[in-house]
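Minimal example, chain plus adenosine-5'-diphosphate.
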Amino acid sequence: MSRAIRACAAGAAASRRGLASVEAMGAAKGAPPAAGRWAGRGRGGPGPMEDGARVQWVFLGCPGVGKGTYAGRLSRLLGVPHIATGDLVRDELASSGPLSKQLSEIVNHGKLVSDEIIINLLSKRLEEGGEKGELGFILDGFPRTIRQAEILEGVTDIDLVINLKLREEALLAKCIGRRKCSQCGGNFNVASIDIEGENGGPRMCMPPLLPPPQCESKLITRADDTEECEPVEDFYRARGKLLEFNLPGGIPESWPKLLQALNIEEDPDNNRSAAA
Ligand SMILES: Nc1ncnc2c1ncn2[C@@H]1O[C@H](COP(=O)(O)OP(=O)(O)O)[C@@H](O)[C@H]1O
């Protein structure tokens, strides 16, 4: 058990319980490293782990880059859960459970919730998934800090960390264009990007991600994000787990290239994946 976990485990009893269940996700810790781990999956197989292959991935990227979009698509394709800690926080807030008042103050001020709370929420989610027979995960929004990365490393092997990157001008426009529905919490983006290609490359076009009609009148801008992404990137880069992926444009251009970079082939017959 890592020092970070011990430090955490010294916290509140509830935190200890949460950490113990995060440890449940570490059953496969010590398995060989990641490259091509999912490559042995049978073409079109019904589940992700039929031959012992795992997907234990993390998505990193600046706010607005599209982590949730690509993590969600991959999770559907690979048949593993997409676990976004922001969603876990929002669900907890909506539940009016014991944490919700404390959480709403933190989240409304655009701050990160404590490692203990986020780990408890993640543990609970993984435990529920485990009971339903879920295997593997694609994490989005976690880890956000080096301490969270250390805790995760202490309990399980992460196979791959996909760091989504976008040209600065496009990223800026995407950040400014972020909107959230004040009622359902859904995330949207009103930015419509159409900029010259770099070094004679193709234009970069990214259409807006508009809300459904029922959310249109409830859109609010989102709190400025002042988080520092680099330390977590560096943490995984130093461990040889970071795959940097420069988004070439919107989903139609980026999705096939991302699959290519991950050595995944979409199976047109049944919309499941297979190794390229
Ligand atoms: N790993 C985490 N560590 C701490 N707080 C988190 C974490 N993930 C989510 N949160 C909390 O939940 C809120 C919503 O998360 P998310 O949707 O990922 O962020 P954003 O709304 O900035 O895209 C964050 O502002 C933060 O308060």
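The chain is about 40% helix and 15% strand. The chain has a mean pLDDT of 78.
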